[in-house]
Structures are given as C-alpha cells and as structure tokens.
Design a protein that fits this description.
alpha+beta; Aldehyde Ferredoxin Oxidoreductase,  A, domain 1; Aldehyde Ferredoxin Oxidoreductase Protein, subunit A, domain 3; 3 domains; 6-stranded mixed beta sheet; 23 helices; 17 strands; binds iron/sulfur cluster
Length: about 625
Amino acid sequence: MPQARDGLPEMRHLLRVNLTDGTVETEAVDSTYRDRLVSGKGLGAALLMDETEPGVDPLGPDNALLFMQGPLTGFAPGTSRYAAVTKSPLTGTYVDSYSGGHFPTMLRHALPTYLAIVFEGAAPDPVYLEIDADGSASLEDASDLWGMDTTETACQFEGKQTKTAAIGPAGENQVRFATISSDEGTHHAGRGGTGAVMGSKNLKAVVATGGDVPNPPAIRQLRAEHTKRLGQSDDTDWARNGGTQLVPDWTQEVGALPSHNWTRGQVADIEDVNIDAFEPGHVGTDSCSACPIACGHVTAFAETDLDGAFPEASVAWGPEYETIGMMGANTDITDVTGITELADAADRLGMDTISLGNVLSWTMEMADRGLVDYDIDFGDARAARDLVEMIAHREGIGDALAEGTARAAAELAEGATPAREAAVEVKGLELPAYDPRASQSMGLAYATSDRGACHQRAWPIGTDALGGERDPFGTEGHAEAVIAGQDENALLYSMVACDFTGYNYEYVAEWLDELGYDLDVEDLQTIGERAWNMTRLFNVREGFDRSDDTVPARIQQPIERAGPAEGNALTDEEFEAMLEEYYRRRGWSQEGIPETETLAGLDLDAIVPDGLGA
Ligand code: SF4
C-alpha cells in the first residue's frame, strides 16, 4: 500500500460534500483502490463507478463531480494540477479534465492527505466550497456570485495564498462544453463539460487557501534537481521557448492544421496565425506554481478588428495552439486580434475553445449552405463574438449550439446528412486541431480516447507526420504507438502531473520513492495500463463499444489544400485494420470490451464490478 515517508502526508482521505443537505465529511479511501491505482485518473474512474449508477443523467443530482489530486502536487515542479472527473454531459463517457495554475497547489496545501473531493447531490441555491489552510471546509452562499464571469468570480477571493476554481455563465447555463476555470479564469479544466456538471449542482466555485506542507532536505534537493531539468533540458526546450504557439507552423507544414471547417489542412498564409503573428501582442509569459518552464503567453492588443465593440476584452492568457487552430484557422478567422478577443471571451464566459471553435465553424458552414437560418460567414470575427455570447447565455440559436455540434446537427438541421457530416466529433467530443488525414494514427487515437476525440490521451502525430518514425499515411505501427502514448499519459494523469514537463516513468518513480511509495518503473507502467482499462470499463458500463470507436465522416473524405496530405482520406478499411490490431494488443475483445483475463492480469478483478469484462 502507498505509505508516506515519516513527516510527509499520507494520501488516504476523501472529502465528501453533499450539496443537497449541505454536509461536509471526511472518509477513508479503500486501500484496495489506493494499492492498485494510487490517485488521479484511474482512481477517479473507480470512485466514479462507485458513486454513480449506470445510465446516470450527467446533469442530474445523482451524477458525481470529483476533484482529484496526486502525490507529487505541492512538492514536484510541473505538477500543480488537479483533475475534474465526472460523467460528461457532452459525451456520456467518463471524463477527466486537468487544470494547472496555482489553485491546485493551494488545494494540496490545504488538504495534503486527501485524494479526492466528491461533490454529490445539488444545492437548492448557489453555493461555493471554502477550504481553509487548516483543512476545514464549509459551503457558503454564492447568490451574489451567480452571473459573474470566471475572472470576476476569482477576483472576489484571490490573493497570494488563496485561489479559486469557478464556473462562468456558460457553466451556470449548463452549456455542455463549459469549463471549470482557475487562477482568475486563466487555466481551465476544459474538455467534456465538467463546468456544466458544476452548474447543474449550483456550485459556483471552490476556494482554497494553502497552508504549510513539510519540506525536508531530501525533497528540497530533488525539487532543485527537477527545477533545473525543467528549466534547461532539451525535452522542455520547445515549451520554454514558444510553447504551443509554435505548433501552427508545424501542422501547416504537414497539412494537419484544420481550416474551413475541416475541409482543408492548411491556412492560406501561415504568417497570419503563427507565433510571429502574435509577437506584437506578446506582453509576457505565465507559469503554473513553481514551474520554471512558464509556457503560457499573455497577449494583449490595444485595438481589435471588431470595430472597438469589445474594447476591454483583448487580453488573453494564450491563445494556445488549440484555440488558434479551432477558433482561428478552422473558422477562417486569421486575424490575431480577433482570435485573441474570442479566446478571452471564451475564458471569461467559461467555455472549451476546442468545442466552441468547432461549433462556430460548423455554424458558418451551415449558414453558407443554407441549412441553418443564421447570418454568419466564415472569417467573420465580429459575428463569431456575438455568437459566443449567445451560446454562453443560451440565447436564440445559441441555445441549440450550446449542446455541441452533434446535437445541434440533429436539432437545427433535423439530422440532414450534410449537417451531420459537417459535425466533426467522436462520441460527441469535437476534434482538436490535428487532422487525422495528415497523421492517420491520430484517427485511431481519437477513436479510442476515453473521453471522445482528444489529442492529450495520445499524440502519435509527434512520431509520424512530425517525427518521421512511421508512415503517417499507412497503418503500420500506429496501434502500438497509440497504446504506448495512452498508457504513459494515463500514468502521468494518475499522478495528476503536467504532460509538458518531460516526466517519464523513471522520473515519476524517483519522486514517488522520495515521497515514500514503493513503486518501480514496471509498477508504474501497470498503473497506467490499469487506469486506461478502468476508464474503458466505465464507458462499457454506460453502453459504449466498438460501434462508438469511430472516425468522423468528414475525415473519410479527401482533404483539400493540405500540402503532403493533399487528397488523402482515412478510409474505413485502413481504420478498421488499425482498430482490430489495437484491440488485440490491448487484450480487449473485437467488440472493444476488456477481456476478463486482461483484467485479472492487471489485478483489477477486486475492483471491477461483476459482468463488465468480456
Ligand atoms: S509546462 Fe506550462 S502548463 Fe505545464 S506546469 Fe509548467 S507552466 Fe504549467
């Protein structure tokens, strides 16, 4: 069993917050779970399975929302992270969504022995959870906060030692891709609508004030070594020197930068949206707690191209690559001031810019084709800004668009085939900004991702189209690469660490050893694989199988203007070949269900409910 070293906090508690009756209680986490899953992603799946019934309404009081934290947070640089875990209202799958900043460190310092906060039920009126430095926690009246955006909410509380995670109007209105945003609304648990679940529970914010944690010499020594590594190593060079704003140049070159609602793989002129284009507005960098990488950009433009309509809203944390790709390139809004303005609006209102960008580009295409009665053209930043506000407040057409592209296609265009095919999603989660026709392994990564189409579960484009180790247009070797990426990230997310910091199995083992855990590299590889199987089992419980592991129809059509990927399509035949190999290597049935032998081999049979394995 994980056992903390003398003087260091042993993580074994769970804080149960019943929003219906207003009680807050501490419980012990079952050691069977801690032994096998440790914390974070995998433990979150096991707890969510226990806390909810199959088929639970994601936006009903019986869904649970978990805030998970890991053992490295508050000790190791680059691990100021927490995870929001719940059943997603956008996909109906398990979702774990991670956010950085300083809030996670304050939370760990306030609750050093806690693995999770479990929010259950729904409050009759708006509340926030206040956690003090001594670990005491209480629900407080949030009526005056309701309606505030994420930044305004944070500013009611935040100081050096006090940070918040809050929802904005989009979360309050249960927009299915609403975020939970921390640190003055600059860091986001972005994907899958965790903010909508928080809104459905009338929970506006979590406010944490950090206390002191032990800081023995051995920990200080290891922290110094890793701070030096993060600040100097080749692994993190890209993050220190440009971060994700470097990526538009990379994806443009290989034809993977989505444009014109996923019909093209390059923008007309990359110099409109690359890092050099943002340079005139670059006013500084920002960092999560105690991370020397400081990968975040702060961008401000004195004037926007939006006729001065939103004069105060041209400062944004970022925009990061995904926002540039989905709110910019894919909507044909290739003006950096317009992208910055849209990014800031999304952050303040509390919406995921990947899903929101897809919603905007889908609406533009539908308007262009006369399938939706709304006046918006590709490239129109002003109209897009108005629509963002309408979506967050569910006004007019914004009400249907707040449901995401798959549901909007059904409601606004009555399920017409062109409307359905223009909604580019897997399991309801809209694709991020890497087109699988330029890297076919990304198609497999999206199809098999536990929370719907996601580039953070595996990023195999890094070793094919961008890395040259495999043929991006073939099928060879992709299943193995996707599995390796998923398992390594599942371990990192089980530790609730940042995936930009170069923490590999060896480095994590080194930290866990110092923190008192007896786990070697092989154990950690197993823990990652266990976590991936646990999230799959949650989805199996909810009725997902092979028929849901799909590639969007548009990705099966030839791509235009895509450089080396020009004219490529990911065919059914190619995809099915990769998927079959993936299931075989995973030890899952060809229906996509983990075999009972696989679960026994992973020592998960004591956790998995009867009847879930194949
Ligand atoms: S690399 Fe960037 S996102 Fe990750 S912890 Fe450091 S500053 Fe935060």
